[in-house]
Design a protein that fits this description.
The complex is a heterodimer. By secondary structure, chain A is an all-alpha fold. Chain A has twelve helices and two strands, in the order H-H-H-H-H-H-H-H-H-E-E-H-H-H. Chain B is 82% helix and 0% strand. The chains are: A mainly alpha, B mainly alpha.
Chain lengths: 283, 249
């Protein structure tokens, strides 16, 4: 057994090797390096392992154990770094138990990581990137639209909020353990949170589409004589305002929902359609 | 001189931001809106830089990574479009016309990076076998960062230093229909971002909320922040009533 560090920290009273400060440091390191070595083969594996190094060195003084632990974490890993933070806490708790000699296999640690990374990424993507980011960025762009320098600083709210969340959630993961995270994932509270964020996210996508998507047609027909020209856009506006931008968003949404879409291709098609539309005078 | 300074800044900024150090920290500071501030200070026209930065930013508000692939390079788009637009006195609409194709090209650089980084993963495997933690950190953080300098820095650096005149000449000689085409694309591309975000959210049964937000703004013309306040309050209240019903039921 390794020597247990005697600190006044509550963690030491439970005979734990790891302090909550270690957990927060681990997550913050992961937050900083997560995407730096990102690759198609294993995505965040390098970043996750790098963040684990101080913990693993503390837990495994035997070089052979350390090697095994490092190899264990170099497997494919990818999640949303903020709402994936409980995984960091749980992994550390499991590694700690393992270092103490509990029968925890490599497979159970890997299984926990791969089992939780998907659901946590799903939560993080809908809250952080699909709700929080567009609201903050739209607010920032609006504030600077007439030349103010406030906008850029408003953008920084995104990382600030994320760091505050991650520092808490990582420690929560360590304390609660994997059973409670699974429970939480199936509990009403997390479903409520996702439902609320998704609702606000979709509502905001509507508001943002309405404000920022621009599409209109200059088409008009002259029926000769002294008649007023027939302006298509006026007719469309008469039916319902904002019909064309709405059709554009819905059309793209429908397209994205078909399997295996290449986003770059969609983008190039949008540009091509725009240019062709401009040449022919339709758009 | 001024353009040289901006070129060097843009090259360095592109390199540092696209190492993704600090997750959303670099995600925030790499935005066209953020880069506009230092560019404006260097070029002596902060106000115009912010106006152009905000206009280009609109393209990328709803940009969300589906499966870790971003469909456009918001960073490169702003770093090249803003200085050229200020330097040549172009309108925000023309700045968007430059940003759109540049942002698409940047995606290929991102793909190149994720491909070459595979090399460092295998390096890290070897170092793990040796139990050498210092070298694992080198392979995870230092090497990818150092290597990316060579394919990040030159792109905005040369584009601004030598491209400004070329773009300016091009913009003067380019047919009206092409400029108009790109400006149509500039109005349409935010739609891709928003559609993508809806796709990531999933939850098709909540779709009426999208329609609600869309027509609330269409008919009332309230600003985005106003819509956000209404939306947030509605969600919180619905949540409260639901909970109360569950407790009572």
């Amino acid at each position: 057994m390794t020597e247990i560090q005697q600190t006044p920290d509550a963690a030491a009273e439970n005979g734990r090797l790891i302090t909550e400060k270690d957990i927060r440091r681990n997550w913050l390191t992961y937050y900083i390096v997560a995407e730096m070595g990102i690759s198609y083969e294993r995505l965040q594996a390098l970043g996750f392992t790098t963040a684990m190094i101080p913990i693993l060195k503390k837990l495994y003084p035997d070089p052979e154990d350390l090697k095994e632990a490092l190899k264990r974490h170099l497997i494919f890993y990818n999640t949303e770094a903020v709402f994936g933070s409980p995984v960091n806490g749980i992994v550390i708790a499991m590694e700690e138990q393992k270092a103490k000699g509990e029968p925890i296999t490599d497979k159970s640690i890997t299984g926990m990581k791969t089992g939780l990374m998907g659901p946590m990424a799903g939560i993080g993507d809908s809250i952080d990137w699909a709700t929080l980011k567009p609201i903050i960025f739209a607010l920032a762009a609006t504030l600077s639209a007439s030349g103010s320098i406030i906008g850029p600083f408003v953008l920084l709210l995104l990382p600030l909020i994320q760091i505050l969340i991650g520092l808490r959630l990582s420690v929560y993961g360590y304390r609660a353990g994997k059973a409670s995270i699974r429970e939480l994932l199936h509990s009403g509270r997390i479903k409520e949170l996702i439902l609320g964020a998704s609702t606000l996210g979709l509502f905001m996508m509507g508001a943002l589409s309405s404000t920022y998507v621009k599409l209109s047609t200059p088409l008009q027909f002259n029926f000769g004589g002294g008649n007023e020209p027939f302006v298509l856009q006026n007719i469309l506006d008469g039916i319902i305002p904002g019909l064309l931008p709405l059709m554009a968003v819905l059309g793209l949404y429908w397209w994205l929902n078909k399997k295996n879409q290449n986003f770059t291709v969609i983008m190039l098609v949008i540009i091509a359609v725009s240019v062709i539309g401009a040449v022919t005078g339709i758009l | 001189m001024e353009m040289l300074a901006v070129s060097i800044f843009a090259g360095l900024w592109y390199w540092i931001c696209k190492t993704d150090i600090g997750y959303a920290i670099t995600h925030a500071i790499r935005q066209p809106l953020f880069a506009a501030l230092p560019i404006g200070l260097m070029m002596g026209d902060v106000k115009q830089a912010m106006i152009i930065g905000a206009a280009v930013q609109i393209l990328y508000i709803g940009l969300v990574a589906a499966g870790s692939n971003l469909p456009a390079d918001d960073c490169l788009a702003g770093l090249i479009a803003i200085p050229i637009a200020i330097g040549s006195g172009l309108t925000p609409a023309l700045a968007i016309a430059i940003a759109v194709p540049v942002g698409v090209m940047g995606v290929f650089v991102d793909q190149l990076r994720k491909t070459v980084n595979v090399m460092f993963v295998h390096m890290a495997d070897r170092y793990a076998e040796e139990g050498n933690t210092r070298k694992i950190v080198l392979a995870s953080v230092v090497y990818p960062t150092a290597l990316s300098f060579f394919f990040r820095f030159p792109i905005p650096f040369f584009a601004i230093l030598y491209g400004a005149d070329a773009v300016n000449n091009f913009m003067n000689s380019v047919p009206e229909w092409l400029i108009h085409g790109f400006s149509v694309a500039g109005g349409l591309l935010p739609a891709l971002g928003f559609a993508l975000t809806m796709f990531v959210i999933g939850k098709k049964e909540l779709f009426p909320w999208f329609i609600l937000g869309y027509f609330l703004v269409q008919f009332s013309g309230i600003p985005v922040i106003g819509a956000a306040i209404f939306g947030l309050c509605a969600v919180l209240l619905i949540n409260y009533y639901n909970n109360r019903k569950n407790v009572e039921g």
